[in-house]
């Protein structure tokens, strides 16, 4: 782990892995609160690392201190839930020495009902002897190869605060120093600009990233989605639509892109076209081992709710009711959907129709 001023979060993280890890190594990058005091309750390996505006440097230092056969990493605002803790213990007991790395899901954000909103995979467990390295000053990634196993274990993110301004400052400092940004850096720099509300500059960076030949396909698709969102919020609706459609140059449609295009045509009150895109989103099979960022709303209830709206506006109340029922399967306590259900059923009853 690498940490700084995490006294509010660190204990819950370390409690979740106590008894799983054979050693715990924590590299502190300059805490001024009780972080190191809390860490020492769980390990003697609390080390200082001078912060140099480079997350990879800090992570590589922490990895270099490990002595066990495999290294598992977490952030201070991550936890292993009981089910995933037990799965990791089982994996540890049966892990073949031919395994070079294991990926796990990252449950990054949740809705009001505790359902996962955003998830993706990350390489979490790696063989120490292979000396895999971290790359990237911000939004760093662990470069692995060989025999990689995709597990169903999930690490759960318990974000309390964010570091958007800090991460953006690192990129800005790199640019001021004359450093060249990689294609991946351009993508994540655009994300930071967007998250900090600088939509015009974010759009420029997404456009620049998409012009580059290099870059992960999943990042290209997500960049199109986020670029479309920037243009929507800037009121540039023609560019909004074109950006979403550009994703089809890289891959088959994702539910996120379908919902983006559906919403574009819904806002223009072109309900039949909106139905096409939302219906396509409901027909897609969710990827099992996709490494891209996945908005679970788009793969579950959201297109059904929007289809309910579209069909109602088209005068097809039975189809509107059916899709609201489909949405309720995913969110049975959603008050808006329950209100829709009562609304439709009252109208059917008034007309003497069965439900």
Automatic annotation (TrEMBL):
Database matches in Pfam families: Glycos_transf_2
CDD domains: Beta4Glucosyltransferase
Residue ranges constituting the Glycosyltransferase 2-like domain according to the UniProt record: 1-135
Extent of the signal sequence: none
A molecular function GO annotation: transferase activity
UniProt keyword terms in alphabetical order: Transferase
Entry keyword Transferase: yes
Domain of life: Bacteria
SUPFAM superfamilies: Nucleotide-diphospho-sugar transferases, TPR-like
The protein's name: Glycosyl transferase
Source species: Paenibacillus herberti
Lineage of source species: Bacteria, Bacillati, Bacillota, Bacilli, Bacillales
């Amino acid at each position: 782990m690498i940490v700084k001023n995490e006294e509010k979060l660190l204990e819950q993280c370390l409690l979740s892995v106590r008894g799983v890890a054979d050693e715990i190594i924590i590299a502190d990058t300059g805490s001024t609160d009780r972080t190191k005091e809390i860490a020492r309750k769980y390990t003697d390996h609390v080390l200082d690392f001078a912060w140099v505006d480079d997350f990879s440097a800090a992570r590589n230092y922490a990895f270099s201190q490990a002595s066990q056969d495999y290294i598992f990493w977490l952030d201070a605002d991550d936890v292993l839930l009981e089910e995933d803790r037990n799965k990791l213990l089982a994996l540890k007991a049966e892990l073949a020495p031919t395994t070079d790395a294991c990926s796990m899901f990252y449950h990054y954000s949740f809705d009001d009902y505790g359902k996962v909103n955003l998830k993706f995979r990350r390489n979490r467990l790696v063989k120490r002897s292979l000396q895999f390295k971290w790359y990237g000053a911000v939004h760093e990634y662990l470069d692995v190869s060989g025999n990689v196993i995709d597990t169903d274990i999930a690490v759960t993110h318990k974000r309390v605060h964010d570091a958007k301004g800090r991460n953006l400052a690192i990129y800005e400092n790199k640019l001021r120093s004359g450093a060249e940004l990689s294609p991946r850096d351009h993508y994540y720099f655009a994300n930071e600009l967007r998250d900090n509300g600088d939509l015009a500059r974010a759009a420029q960076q997404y456009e620049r990233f998409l012009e580059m030949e290099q870059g992960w396909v999943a990042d290209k698709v997500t960049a199109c989605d986020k670029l479309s969102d920037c243009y929507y919020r800037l009121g540039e609706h023609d560019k909004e639509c074109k950006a979403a459609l550009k994703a089809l140059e890289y891959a088959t449609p994702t539910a996120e892109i379908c919902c983006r295009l559906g919403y574009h045509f819904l806002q223009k009150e072109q309900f039949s076209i909106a139905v096409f895109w939302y219906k396509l989103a409901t027909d897609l099979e969710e990827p099992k081992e996709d490494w891209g960022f996945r908005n679970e709303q788009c793969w579950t209830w959201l297109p059904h709710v929007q289809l309910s709206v579209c069909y109602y506006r088209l005068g097809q109340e039975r189809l509107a009711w059916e899709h609201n029922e489909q949405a309720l399967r995913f969110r049975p306590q959603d008050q808006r959907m329950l209100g829709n259900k009562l609304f439709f059923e009252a109208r059917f009853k008034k007309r003497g129709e069965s439900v």
